Amino acid sequence: MLRESQRLRDHLERAAYLLPARFQTNLDSTAENWLYAELHYAESSLSELSIMDSAHSVQLGKIDNLIVTVSDPGIDLSRLNSTEQTRMMNTMCDIAQKVAQAYWSILNYTSVDVVNGPPFWYFGPAPPNETILEEAAQSALNLTEEIKQI
Fold this sequence. Notes:
mainly alpha
């Protein structure tokens, strides 16, 4: 889960930096193709993460919905002003960071819940930090709704 969350972060951040290709009316096809490839890779990583962590499919589904929405060529992002564009890019990077951070704490039990965690000898997968993952999902939901209103 850690590896896939980091892959998701990497691809989603690259996609955020390539978003200006979608903001322009005269699209640069190379940058746009690269953007769609990064969104596809991010969606693949998210799909793998969802398979491994089916307990959080609702939160991960909200992030997937954002990726699908940004990928939709029918949505005209060129109508966004520069402030909105920057905010959208920053929000996508923030979501990417939060997902990776949620899964990063390999010892979530010891760093988050010392009292109720498993015994010290437990070497199984650590669950993601619920609070951080929910923040990422809520940010993704909010951004998706904003994009759909364009």
